[in-house]
Specification:
globular; two-stranded antiparallel ribbon; 484 residues
Amino acid sequence: MTSLEISKLMPLIVVLLTPMVVMLYIAVKRNHFITMLLSVLGLLIALALIPATRLVPVTRIGSLLIIDNYALFYFSLIFLAAIFILVPSYSYLEKRFGGNKEEYYLLILTATLGSAILAASSHFATFFLGLEILSVSLYALIAYLRQTNEGIEAAVKYLILAAASSAFLVFGMALVYSQTGTMSFSGVTDFLSKAADYNLILVAGIAMMVVGFGFKMALVPFHMWSPDVYQGAPAPVSAFIASVSKGGILALLFRFFAQYDIVQSKPLFIIFGGLAVLSMFGGNLLALMQKNVKRLLAYSSIAHFGYILTAFIAGNHNARFTGAGAATFYIVTYFITIIGAFIIVGVLSSKEREAFARSDYKGMYWRHPWLSVAFSAMLFSLAGIPLTAGFIGKYYVLSTGIGNGLWWLVVIMIINSALGVYYYLRVIVEMFSSADEEKTDLQASVRVGLMTGIALALLTIALVWLGVYPTGVISAIKTSMLMF
């Protein structure tokens, strides 16, 4: 490996070295606060190296990784999201976990590394490596609060289903390789583009790989694990799964099909179109029946990734904004809102239990007005209300679908967005209703730490800023999407 290639890999190398440094520190002395600071510092250094990495005149690292502007944009997004999850995790763990807390940060860092590897992958080998680094870390993170039966149950469910989906994924890769003779993304898509027709083995291989993608993104009908895991996992871990974990998979999916027209491929169009429709309706209809806020966010997450698939299917032929570009902006807005929402769930949680019941939020405005306003902003953004980032995200996804003539998907997305408004508003109405003294014991003990408050304030400001002035982020996305 040349010095230029090493320079190009520096953000990943720093994220790789950070858990090693944290481990060495833990071996000498355990200090929760210092461990959190070291973890955040490592990610900040990795972020600071990204502008310099752009200047290195190398993009390919062998045949396994591509560190281009696209990968670096997702590195920035993944590292920032991990920082905003790590900072509130400190007060959350201090409140809810009585054991050793330092290993939690090691697991978050390794999972972040796995997600970043996915964003830069250009080969089946690095794809599977990044996926397993991410997944193995998540098994332990979901069950980190070992004193809760729900966490252990959720981790076991995730382990079993993730193992099954990995088996589908690897077997699908093997079938695709047997027909194409290559494991590089560009080689596979070139073969698909030039093939006059598809043989059954190749279609089966792609379909089995889609099962792996569908599981990690919790698309219907591969969503069974999502509500149980969101409910059983610690609130910051649920935020990580909803954002960083899925973001890496989406980045890889966009790269894999970057030069391939989904609309012109009947088998893939049917597969991804079906997943999008099922996810939108399944996620929203199941969310309508939820009184558990964490499960509601889980089902709404399923619907949101159905919306993202609409832009993905639309492809990259729109001169104004590519499908991958629209989907990436939507992911940015989704990261902000879902992380902010789970931060508030964590803040409201007590030592004994998390604030997952909708009744736990009843009358919250009268005790914690600024928390209620922030949570309302997050829910309004998820619903796609104007002047929020979520509205702009949905606008670009819809315009991309319209620009490519996918009217049936656009209409389905609009119908489902209307359904989403209803169940988000139910939580907001609960917060602003009159306080019930019997239901506010949980709220009475709420203490928002300084770092958590700053993180939440920054997310809320970003939410409104992107809803009013999204130009800067859109320009950065367009620059990163030149490969498309």
